[in-house]
Amino acid sequence: MSASAVHSLWTMAAPIDKIDAPTIEYTQLLPTLIVIGAAVLGILVEAFVGRKARYYVQVFLTVVALVAAFAAVIGLAAGGYASTEAKIVAMGAIAVDGPALFLQGTILLTGLVAVFTFAERRLDPAAHGNHVDSFTAQAASVPGSESEQAAVKAGFTTTEVFPLSLFAIGGMLVFPAANDLLTLFIALEVLSLPLYLLCALARRKRLMSQEAAVKYFLLGAFSSAFLLFGVALVYGYAGTVSYAGIADVVDGTVQTVDPALAGTMGNDALLLVGAAMILMGLLFKVGAVPFHMWTPDVYQGAPTPVTGFMAAATKVAAFGALLRLLYVVLPGLRWDWRPVMWGVAIATMLIGAIVAITQTDIKRLLAYSSIAHAGFILAGVIAATPDGISSVLFYLGAYSFVTIGAFAVVTLVRDAGGEATHLSKWAGLGRRSPLVAAVFAVFLLAFAGIPLTSGFAGKFAVFKAAAEGGAGMLVVVGVISSAIAAFFYIRVIVLMFFSEPKPEGPTVAVPSPLTITAIGVGVAVTLVLGVAPQYFLDLANQAGVFVR
Amino acid sequence: MENLIALLVAAPLLGAAVLLCGGRRLDRTGHWIGTLLAVASFAVGVLLFTDMLGKDAEHRALHQALFSWIPVEGFQADVAFQLDQLSMTFVLLITGVGSLIHIYSIGYMEHDERRRRFFGYLNLFLAAMLLLVIADNYLLLYVGWEGVGLASYLLIGFWQHKPSAATAAKKAFLVNRVGDMGLSIAIMLMFTTFGTFAFGPVLESVGDTGEGKLTAIGLMLLLAACGKSAQVPLQSWLGDAMEGPTPVSALIHAATMVTAGVYLITRSGAIFNAAPDAQLAVVIVGAVTLIFGAIVGCAKDDIKKALAGSTMSQIGYMILAAGLGPIGYAFAIMHLVTHGFFKAGLFLGAGSVMHGMNDEVDMRKYGGLRKYMPVTFVTFGLGYLAIIGFPGLSGFWSKDKIIEAAFAYDDGIRGWIFGGVALLGAGITAFYMTRVMIMTFFGEKRWQPDESGNEPHPHESPKSMTIPMIVLAFGSVFAGGLFSLNESFVKWLEPVTQFEHPHPVISVPAITASTVVVLLLGAGLAYLMYGRKPVPVTAPRGSLLTRAARRDLLQDDFNHVVLVRGGEHLTRSLVYVDHTVVDGVVNGTAAGFGGLSGRLRKLQNGFARSYAVSMFGGTAILIAATLLMRAV
Question: Which of A277, B19, B181, B369 is most solvent-facing, going by the fewest CB within 10 Å?
Answer without folding.
Answer: B181
